[in-house]
Every structure is written in structure tokens, then in C-alpha cells.
Design brief:
The protein starts with 15 loop residues before the first strand and ends in a 17-residue tail after the last helix. It is an alpha/beta fold.
Length: 364
């Protein structure tokens, strides 16, 4: 159990935090509802599901990934596993409506052209997520040319050339040129327009990802190369990686979410339970507050300390009337209520208009 009332950090517009429910509903609509409610309590901006059918996603004899076998303790085919994790079309309508009622954005991943049509034309979602496994699926990328929804493109298992090629296909006309390992923007107008629609997520596809493979510096590099908004889809254990990602400029943080790591299913073990997810959200919001706007100015909280911590020009020893000021009879001491010590040279050789006792603030 966790007490969300203790999390008092104000919610900011960035980063956009997605609770990746994925298939952690285990094909159960009631569990899906509980996950939505819990994600909202944790402070997530959105929940993300996956829109697929086993028949359209994989062949019947396709093997599971090693992590899926390990996490499910079952060597059944990928098809049989996915068949159990499907949701019906009416379930998606219900869950989107349920999400809206709970004031949290509903997002879903697409795995084929049919799911794109369903989510955009029937469900009318705001965001379309392209999972890492589809970044080389030409049919899906080509279909995305027909939509105007915001796109989140995950890049697990991809190199920079594959990312550039995918974006060039989605955008209809080529935005980038890739030649001899050099990338350049060749359509600046389209790039600026497309920048408002797409966010590219750095991602490493393994469950869980070992720390040495997280490669979080890729966030900064992708931002520099693509000049697009970059986010991070995290598969590491714990909450440290998302915090580092935001410090490197990630605009979206996506993290797998479960009610219990011990539930049966391929992704539960690499997901965050509510208490840890809420803690992650708290720290991400706190980071935004602490990060500030970068302008080096006196902060409001500092103003009360200026006169106390800074110094003024004072008499170093007794100064008689008409005696010339010099470095021998002037010094700087607290408080900072008098003449700024930065002006001490302007006083040198000027005659004192009155008698000053040692430590007395100099007035002219």
C-alpha cells in the first residue's frame, strides 16, 4: 500500500509520463480497469495498451523470446501466449471511455495496418505508439502517412539509419538524407511541421535491461542528430534510469506498470508496482521544479539573505573628518546594507565628510 496524499509535488507539463500497461491486464478487463485507476493515482499522464490479435501478429509456430519463457515459465508458442492476452474491440472502447472518466490519456500501440485504422477512425485516439518491433515494418510505416495523429516512435533494436528510414517513410517526403554515415535535414519546412507530431523514444529491447546496456547518452545524441523531441521507454529495473533520462532532455517517459510483480505474464517482472511508480513520478516532477528555466538570476528565496550574507564598505580603523579614504582604512564586512564593496576603488583618495568609528558603515 502507498499513500498518494504524501506526494505533494505539483504536476507540471513535462515530462509526459506513460504507464505502460501493455499486456499486464492478462486479458482481463477488470484488471485493466484497476491498472488505469492505480496509474492515475500514481500521477501518470497516460496509460498505454497494445492493439493486436495473435493471428495478425505472429505465425502459429513462432517461438517466445527468452525473457518471455523465463518470466512465464512456459515454453508454449508465442501465438498461444498472445492469444491469452488479447482484448476484444469492445474492450478498447470501454477502456478508452473509462480512462477519460478517470482523466488520464488513453494510448495504444499498433502492430498492423488494421489496428491503425481501428485506433484512428473508430477509437479516435490522440496518440499512436509505434513499438520497437514495427520500426522496420514498411506496411505499418506506410499506413501512417494517412493519419494526422501524434506519433510516438520507439527505437529498441534499431540503429540510427533504420530510425531515419522509418521517419522518412512516415513523413511521405524525405526529411533526412543519410549518406556515408552522415545525416542531414534536406526538407526543413517538413521537418519543422513533423516535429510537432512525432516524439522518438530511445529504448533498449530486453526485459529487464541491465544497467550497462541502458545507453542513456543516446537521448542527447538522437536529439542532436534528428532535432526532434526525444523520450525514453525504460525497461531497466527501478526508477534511476528515467530520472537520468529526463536530465538528458527526455520529453516522454514510458515505464511498464503492474499491480504486482508476482502476477503471471511476460512483462510483470520487469514492471513497476504502484508504490515505486508513484515514487518515480514524484521524483520526475521534482526534477522539473529543481531544473528551473536556467536563467541565472537572484531567486526569491535568496532576497532575504542578500543583506545578511553580503558585505558593505566599513571603516577598518578610526577615520577622521577630511581624511582620505584608502585601502589602509577601508575594508568589507557584513551586513550588506551599505555601499557595495565593488565600488571601493571609487572611494580611494576621496575625503571623508565625517568621522567614522571602526566597523562603522561608510556613507558618502
Amino acid at each position: 500500500e502507498f499513500n498518494i496524499s504524501k506526494i505533494k509535488i505539483s504536476k507540471l507539463s513535462k515530462p509526459f509520463i506513460i504507464a505502460e500497461i501493455g499486456v499486464n491486464h492478462n486479458g482481463n478487463i477488470n484488471l485493466a480497469k484497476k491498472l488505469i485507476i492505480s496509474a492515475k493515482k500514481c500521477g501518470a499522464d497516460a496509460v498505454k495498451f497494445q492493439n493486436f490479435t495473435a493471428d495478425s501478429l505472429t505465425t502459429k509456430d513462432s517461438k517466445k523470446a527468452p525473457y518471455q519463457i523465463k518470466n512465464t515459465r512456459n515454453e508454449e508458442t508465442q501465438y498461444k501466449m498472445l492469444k491469452k492476452l488479447e482484448l476484444k474491440k469492445e474492450d478498447y472502447f470501454y477502456l478508452k471511455k473509462f480512462s477519460k472518466k478517470n482523466k488520464i490519456e488513453f494510448i495504444s500501440s499498433v502492430f498492423d495496418e488494421q489496428s491503425i485504422d481501428f485506433l484512428t477512425k473508430k477509437l479516435k485516439v490522440k496518440f499512436i505508439k509505434i513499438p520497437s518491433g514495427e520500426i522496420t515494418n514498411y506496411l505499418v510505416l506506410k499506413k501512417l502517412q494517412q493519419i494526422k495523429n501524434k506519433i510516438i516512435l520507439s527505437t529498441g533494436m534499431a540503429n540510427i539509419r533504420e530510425i531515419v528510414e522509418a521517419i522518412n517513410i512516415i513523413s511521405k517526403k524525405r526529411i533526412y538524407n543519410y549518406q556515408r554515415n552522415k545525416i542531414s535535414i534536406i526538407n526543413k519546412k517538413l521537418h519543422m511541421k513533423f516535429k510537432k507530431r512525432i516524439t522518438v523514444l530511445h529504448c533498449v529491447t530486453d526485459y529487464p535491461v541491465e544497467e550497462k546496456f541502458a545507453n542513456l547518452s543516446a537521448i542527447e545524441k538522437l536529439s542532436k542528430i534528428l532535432r526532434l523531441n526525444i523520450g525514453y521507454s525504460d525497461h531497466t529495473l527501478g526508477i534511476l534510469a528515467p530520472l537520468i533520462a529526463v536530465s538528458k532532455g527526455a520529453k516522454i517517459i514510458e515505464k511498464h506498470f503492474t499491480l504486482n510483480n508476482k502476477l503471471a505474464g511476460p512483462d510483470h517482472k520487469a514492471s513497476l508496482e504502484p508504490s515505486k511508480f508513484a515514487k518515480m513520478v514524484k521524483y520526475l516532477r521534482l526534477f522539473e521544479i529543481m531544473n528551473g528555466n536556467g536563467n541565472k538570476v537572484i531567486q526569491k528565496c535568496e532576497e532575504k539573505n542578500v543583506k545578511i550574507a553580503r558585505k558593505s564598505i566599513v571603516a577598518k580603523k578610526l577615520i577622521n573628518k577630511n581624511e582620505k579614504f584608502s585601502l589602509n582604512n577601508l575594508t568589507a564586512k557584513r551586513p550588506g546594507t551599505g555601499i557595495n564593496p565593488m565600488k571601493i576603488e571609487k572611494l580611494i583618495n576621496r575625503k571623508s565628510k565625517k568621522k567614522f568609528q571602526p566597523d562603522e558603515l561608510i556613507k558618502i
